[in-house]
Amino acid sequence: GAGVSQSPSNKVTEKGKDVELRCDPISGHTALYWYRQRLGQGLEFLIYFQGNSAPDKSGLPSDRFSAERTGESVSTLTIQRTQQEDSAVYLCASSESKDRGNTIYFGEGSWLTVV
Amino acid sequence: AQSVTQLDSHVSVSEGTPVLLRCNYSSSYSPSLFWYVQHPNKGLQLLLKYTSAATLVKGINGFEAEFKKSETSFHLTKPSAHMSDAAEYFCVVSSFNAGKSTFGDGTTLTVKP
After folding, report:
1. CATH of range A5-9+17-99; options 3.90.550.10, 3.40.50.720, 3.90.850.10, 2.60.40.10
2. Chain segment A44-95, per-residue pLDDT in tens
3. Is the Cβ of B32 closer than 8 Å to some Cβ of chain A?
């Protein structure tokens, strides 16, 4: 596709349920990032993939959060046993490589509301 | 609707000289504005943010930005560049009434010795 695609664009879920958020990066982009942004807050880095491996998972807030990437393409962010504090927009971004100077392209985000 | 434009895709300065990274925005609502920096192999790091308090915002590593509503600008400045400032910088406008945050395309800052 022309840009980074995320789905669903909006998700309302009940507390305690699991959710999966999907990211389709730009074709050929080897680097993929997940971020979270709560209402009125800045971006929180969650995890970074280079190819299918994740050299930096430092931002995952708890063991309820996990992410995987397959085929050096699609990535899925999974949140288990959702809590109201998980309500936020989850942003995916990709770039051609991890090297300096490569533009990072962001998706529109998946808005998650936990009720 | 909202948008953000980073006016320079690349900026090159000499070490010890001032830095100016320009950002203009448009928003139908009172926005929050952010500057982020991304070094190689790192996620985005928040430099500073404006959320309707003081219009001159001071951030980490000596950076600051001034919110100018009349000019719809939020330019990032630093009096004296350091080699470690070389990175990609992103300006972000966030108006949650609009339903999303919008990111600039980024400015690559190069610092020459």
Report:
1. 2.60.40.10
2. 778 888 889 887 777 899 999 999 999 889 999 999 999 999 999 898 988 7
3. yes
